[in-house]
Structure formats: structure tokens, C-alpha cells
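Hey, can you fold this one?
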Amino acid sequence: MKTNKLFRARNIIFLLGALFLTNCTKLNEVVLDEVLGEDASNPAGALAAAYDRLGDGTFVDHGGVFSLQEYTTDEALLPTRGSDWGDGGKWRSMHEFTWAADNPIVTDNWNMLTNGITRSLTAIKANSTGTGAQKDLFLAEAKGLLAYYTYTTLDLFGQAPYRDPANEKAPLEIKQAGSAIDELITEVEGLIPSLASLGEQSTHNGRFTKEAAYGLLANMYLNRAVYKDRYAASFNFNEKSVNSNDSDMDKVIYYTSLLINPGKFRLESNYFDNFAIKNSGGSELIFVVVQKIDYIRNGSNSFAYVGVERNQKPSPANRGTNAACISPEFYATWNGNHDDPRFSRKYQYSDGTWFMNDAVGSVPATDIVPKSNNLPWFHFNRGIMVGPQYGPKLTSTGGFEMTDNGRIKVSELYMEKSTGTRMDFTPELNFTNPTQAVFAQNQINRGARVFKFEFDPEEGNGTSNVDIPLFRLGVIYTMRAEAYFRKGQTALALSDINTLRTSRKRESLYGDAPGVAILSLDEATLYKEIAFETYWEMFRRPQMIRFGKYELPFSAKPTSQPTRRIFPIPQSTLDVTKAFHQNQGY
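Sure. Predicted structure:
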């Protein structure tokens, strides 16, 4: 991540992370092989380090925030697949709701998020005493990042650490979601005059701008009622908002409208352009994690790589990892909507050839992987992938099989680690033990896959130039539609949902046909439509909680208790300090 220049922090080992780099206590055992780069002590360097935490696994890796927000829902699960993805059961524990306070996924996410709080507090301190021309702007951005990290921590864990950055002797405070949500809203609303509008003062959508603040405020108000009473059977979404006689939903409408109405952002007609290799500066992207293959800290390819099978090869040097899929319950919500432009999209090569993924054939070999040794680039289709899969195979010398006229030969594919098993992505999972997300080796083809994020083959399997959206216009429309609906303004909610539907267009193979409007809207339809727009973007868990769906059973997920709406404070943290108290039910 960059402000004026990019700084890198790596090999960070911590329990909570220092709330000041210069004031470590028993709470913050820290080992830094590189302490935020040589310029970390200056205001710009400290701010760059705070931004860097967004992209250093936290919001770009499937094991980061994604694993808590998606793998615990119907939109995504990572089962054990034969000999792969066992890892002590940590991945399937997310779907089976068996995680505990010592779960490494829970612990890693707590550490990353609280380190984001650490770095933001450090940046606030550095910029509070700095003298640069952009001191006030950098300070506002640092405070915005602190709010973003803190909000996410409160969302997932119900509490978050804080220490006054102006006072090195200040005591550690533990923010509780029920009261801290109002403090955060007040803080971010107060930052807006000091933040730059996107594009002004050399800002880009990787910076915390006014527009990022509007997105965060809309999200906070949308979920405020949940924070106020986390375990409630229902929520009062229309209670009086913070510092205003408006309701929470009025505020959601206000802040989302600031992003929708001026026309500064525009919905992409090709929905998948939002998640493409060349999405930098995209017309929908409000606040993103900027990713670059720059050979310093290359962007993460995780969201693309994790769903692609090992024998699906974008180039002879690349492959997927055959991990995550979606539940049959979520797949079924798309019934009658497979022609929605957001469900899937076929790829067209420059000579007009389409990769249809439904027959043996060939495609041009003219696309070359950037910065490679002339490797041919095979493009898989995008969206939700089901059924038999086709693509190139490797020869004994490691290249793609080619046709006599020099094109990439397309063949039916088989699973790499179960060579007699057809690569047939079945929506049904049919676990042998219905209570455990475990497949035998000859069952590893099961599960519809998500190819929403484009696989970047430039430099290995794990790196990418795809910017990861944190707030984008399509998501903002779903927030406003939900707020309208919860206020009883169903016609306005339907209008926003239909704007999303009809603004997306299919590929030219289908005549660039726009999505089809729906005629009416009830709560069940709204719930589905929100997911059609936002799947695999780290919003699903809060959606399921708001709509009362999170406790319901599906696939290998049992009926759960409301206490599972938040995660436990890691045992390693409780062992270090008594300031935190374990969440209810753990």
C-alpha cells in the first residue's frame, strides 16, 4: 500500500502488537525483523505502514477476514478434500461452527486486526507531532484507518483495544461494541471536513478519503442495531441515530446517496470488471486494497487461486489449489437467475473465439502472460462454475498441449489428486458424514466454485495485480436498498435493486443483454438480491445476522446459538492480559 511511497513490514510476530512502538508493556510482545522500513518514524512512513496492514493478508487472503466473514456462511466453505486442507480441522471448523479460543484462524485474524489498530495509533501519534504540508490530511487518514480496523475488530470479536496516542502513559482501554459503535460514528463524521475527496490532493481509491468515510459510516449505521444488542432475537434498525433525530436507516440512505447521486462513481456494465486484473481506478471502486506485482510485497492472488482446481492452468506455470466452494443452499438461491450477468461470464479471445467450457475444442495461443518467458495465457470463464470442466493439459515437457494449427488444445479435465475422477463441480456436496465437511479422495470434485476474481498468472500462483474492493458502488446500492426496505419504502428499495440488475450486461455472445428487472420485492427476495451483488466480498456474515439467518442449519453447519455471532478472544491474548474478558459462550 502506498501514500507517497510504499513501505514494507514483514515477519511480524506478536500477541497483541504494540499500541506504541516506543512503549511496550507485558501486553505487547513484539519482534520486528524490519520495523516498518527505514522511514517508519516519519509521519508518511507511519501512515504507509498502517495502510500496508490492509493488504498484508488481512483483507486480501482467504485465511484473513474473508475466512470469518465468508467461510462461516452459506456463500463459502473450505472442506477437507482427501489428503488436502485437513490442517487440524481449522478450515472446516469455520463451517461446522466448532471454532474455539485457540483456533489459529481466529487468533491470526485477531492479531492482524489489532496490529492494524497498533499501526494506526502509531500513525496518529507521528502525524499529530509532524510538521509536513499534509500533516492534517495524513492525521485524518490515520484516524479513518483506526476506525476501519476498530470497526472490523468489533464486528468480529465484540471488543477491541485502544490507548490514547497523545499520552504514552495512558491506560489500555477495551472498547465494547455496544458503546464504541457510537464513538466510532461520531469520530468518522468529525473527520470528513479534514479528509480529501477522492482524486484531490493526489489521493486515489487506496486512500481513506471522504468517500471511504461515507462508505464506512453507511456500513456502521446499517449494523448499529446489531452492535447494540448482539444476541437479540430481532433488531430495531430504525432507532434514533447518533447525534441526530434521524433514524439509523435514514443515515444509511444519507451516506449511500452521497456516493450514488453525484455520479462520481458508475456501475460497470461488465460486473466482473470490478474484480479483474486491470481494475485499478475502476468506476465503481470507492475504497480498495491496492495490489501490485512489484517484487517488494506482491499483491495476493488468494481469492482467485483458492477456488481453482489444481489441473486448471491459466498458463503452463500456474495452477489452482482446489479448496473453497459454495454451499448447495446458496447455489439454489440462483435458480431462475442463471442468466443474471453476475452469475457467470464466458471469455472471448481477440479473434472472436469463445471459451464455452462445454465441449472439447481449441482457443487462440496469442495471449501471452506478462513478463513471462512467452508463456501462453489461457482464460477461464468467470463467476460461479458448475458441471464438467474443460481446459488445457500439460505435455510431458511441461507445455500446453497444442493443436496442429498452433492453438491451445481444450480437453476434458480430471482432478489432479484423483486422476480417475472427472473434474465435475457438482453443486451437491453430499458429505459421507452429514455433520462433517470432509470428502474422500474420490469426492474432491464436489462443490460449485467461484471464479469471481480474475486469476493473475504473471508471477506464480500467489501474486496479483487485482485491487481488492472494500467499498464499491454496487455494494452501496444494496445498503441503500436494505435501508429503504427497513423503513417501509419498498418501491425505492425495488428501484435500487433493479438498477443493479439492469445495469449489468451479459457478454456479446448473448447480445449484451442487460439483466432483467424484478416486479416486486419482499424480505426473502431482497436477501437473495443483496447476495447476488456482493457474494465473496466479506459482507455475508453481517448480512445473515441482520436477516436472522445465521443460526440456521445447512450442509454440515448445525443449528447454532446467538453467541456464535461473534468470535472468542484468543486464548493467547487472555493468557497475557486480564484486561480482556472472554465473550459469552466460549
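The two ends are 36 Å apart (CA to CA). Let me know if you want another pass with a different chain boundary.
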